[in-house]
């Protein structure tokens, strides 16, 4: 700035020291990209110094979820120019995928691992911050996004992308941002309703922009089994996803820093499997079958389910696999031992004279979790598969996916937390989008999630004590297709958009949002270009 200004003032170097000082003072606050003052005669400058461009303090970028911290600064911020590009710092070549994606989205040139120049966006791995955190610095006409891991830098690019969408630029200053919870996502029932691979991939892109990092796929239930099987091909329904289609979904998810969690629910919700193996159907003393329930007293039941667990833990590369364990119908009758004496006998034989069918079911959960653990994954199970007061207790490393307190013998979430268990929030009061609205379910609204829900609200509308916060790993918004034909997949996508955005906001930052709901909706329309409540 000094050298160029000095050159332009060559013709007035003979002016008085006072005039020269005033001219320099006019330069000191000049921001990047501002218009230099016009050259004036010394006497004119003395009478009226040339004004320089000034900037108000910047405001935080407008994004969903909102950034947790923004250090304001004075300056023009960053806007795309014809010469702008995306580069990665030397030694950060692992960020090339993130750089290419951002360049494509913002219609910039990706130049690779070269020094940044004016107008560029630079990505770099740096620092020892929290996982998935990032720092985004805007100044001097450039943007630099740094983070301790690739996911954090990726989320910084999402902030930049949304800020450009919502306001046309990235404000001057420094964003320091991180998620409040490590698990943030969407749960999708593709068993009761078939969703095309393209539709699922669209949801992955939507999730990534919202900094969501987990997609649960419930692909086996009473109605259908929706992924190709090599070990038991006769159980697969049509239409279904081929394994190649699943691998493409998984590859996209990996590039977007989303982990896909497969689920094979048992010992209930196995109707599609048992159509091929009717001899395994649970029946009471009158020979009446229980829908979806497998007879866990039969060794063949465990063998087939474990075959499937081994097959699909190998297909899904992520950290977790879900083993279900909810709504086992043998435990919903008034006298389980009288109705299902074969189960009662198996419980006593395996766990001792005091064992009951509850213990047999809890042992089933532990055995399936062991198969998942052998595949070097963390097992997940629904909260109504965890019991108390029996001979057998669920293993402590199984993550509790808490969804309801309406089941028979419901246990409040504090009991799981007091036992030291890790819990994930899928509260059916707020986060369950059940097609057709059966069983008194109503479609959740984004506004209600935005204004009333936090990760601590595990059951109903009441939060658990703050002391348990660290045990609550996050949450997922869930789509269940009980009445599958109630909505098309396009209607589902539109119906979950605002609730998913609100869920993302509260999982990233559970504090009371600074924006009103009306302002949030207006921002959502700018960021996504579409939407309903």
Structure at a glance:
By secondary structure, the chain is of the alpha/beta class.
Please characterize this protein's 3D structure.
- The protein is of the alpha/beta class.
- It contains 16 helices and 18 strands.
- The protein has helices at residues 2-8, 17-27, 42-47, 96-106, 150-167, 197-209, 243-255, 271-276, 299-315, 336-339, 341-351, 357-374, 413-418, 446-452, 489-508, 517-528; strands spanning 69-71, 85-88, 109-112, 121-125, 134-139, 142-147, 173-177, 183-189, 214-218, 259-266, 281-283, 289-294, 320-324, 378-382, 399-402, 423-425, 432-434, 472-480.
- Strands 8-9-10-13-14-15-16-18 form an eight-stranded parallel β-barrel, surrounded by four helices.
- Helix 6 runs parallel beside helix 7 (243-255).
- It is elongated and about 85 Å long.
């Amino acid at each position: 700035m000094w050298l160029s200004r000095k050159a332009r003032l060559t013709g007035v170097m003979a002016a008085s020291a006072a005039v020269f000082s005033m001219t320099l003072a006019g330069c000191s606050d000049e921001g990047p990209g501002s218009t230099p003052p016009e050259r004036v005669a010394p006497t004119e400058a003395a009478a009226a110094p040339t004004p320089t461009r000034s900037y108000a303090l910047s405001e935080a970028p407008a994004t969903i979820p909102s950034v947790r911290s923004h250090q304001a600064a004075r300056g023009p911020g960053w806007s795309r120019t014809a010469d702008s590009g995306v580069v990665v710092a030397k030694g950060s070549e692992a960020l090339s995928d993130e750089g290419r994606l951002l360049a494509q989205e913002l219609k910039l040139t990706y130049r690779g691992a070269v020094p940044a120049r004016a107008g560029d966006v630079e990505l770099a791995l740096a620092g020892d911050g929290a996982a998935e955190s990032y720092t985004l610095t805007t100044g001097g006409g450039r943007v630099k996004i740094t983070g301790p891991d690739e996911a954090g830098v990726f989320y910084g690019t999402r902030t930049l992308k949304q800020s450009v969408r919502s306001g046309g630029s990235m404000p001057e200053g420094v964003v320091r941002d991180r998620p409040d919870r490590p698990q943030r996502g969407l749960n999708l029932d593709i068993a009761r309703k078939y969703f095309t691979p393209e539709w699922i991939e669209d949801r992955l892109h939507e999730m990534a922009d919202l900094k969501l990092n987990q997609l649960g796929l419930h692909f086996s239930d009473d109605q259908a089994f929706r992924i190709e099987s090599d070990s038991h091909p006769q159980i697969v329904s049509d239409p279904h996803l081929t394994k190649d289609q699943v691998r493409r979904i998984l590859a996209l998810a990996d590039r977007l820093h989303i982990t896909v969690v497969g689920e094979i629910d048992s010992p209930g919700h196995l109707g599609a499997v048992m159509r091929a193996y009717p001899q395994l159907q649970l029946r009471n003393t009158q020979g009446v079958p229980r829908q979806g329930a497998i007879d866990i007293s039969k060794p063949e039941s465990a063998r087939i389910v474990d075959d499937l667990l081994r097959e699909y833990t190998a297909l899904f590369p992520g950290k977790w696999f879900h083993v279900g364990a909810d709504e086992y119908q043998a435990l919903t009758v008034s006298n389980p031992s009288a109705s299902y004496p074969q189960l009662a006998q198996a419980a006593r034989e395996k766990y001792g004279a005091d064992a009951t069918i509850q213990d047999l079911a809890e042992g089933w959960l532990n055995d399936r979790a062991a198969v998942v653990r052998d595949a070097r994954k963390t097992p997940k199970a629904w909260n109504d598969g965890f019991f108390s007061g029996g001979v057998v207790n669920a293993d402590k490393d199984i993550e509790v996916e808490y969804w309801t307190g309406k089941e028979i013998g419901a246990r409040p979430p504090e009991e799981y937390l007091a036992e030291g268990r890790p819990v994930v929030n899928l509260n059916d009061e707020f986060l369950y989008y059940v097609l057709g609205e059966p069983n008194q379910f109503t479609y959740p609204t984004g506004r209600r999630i935005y204004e009333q829900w936090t990760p601590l609200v595990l059951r109903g509308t009441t939060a658990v004590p703050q002391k348990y916060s660290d045990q609550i790993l996050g949450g997922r918004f869930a789509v269940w297709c009980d009445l599958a034909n109630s909505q098309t997949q396009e209607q589902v996508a539109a119906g979950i958009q605002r609730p998913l955005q609100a869920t993302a906001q509260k999982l990233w930052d559970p504090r009371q949002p600074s924006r009103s709901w009306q302002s949030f909706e207006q921002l959502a329309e700018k960021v996504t270009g579409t939407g309903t409540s």
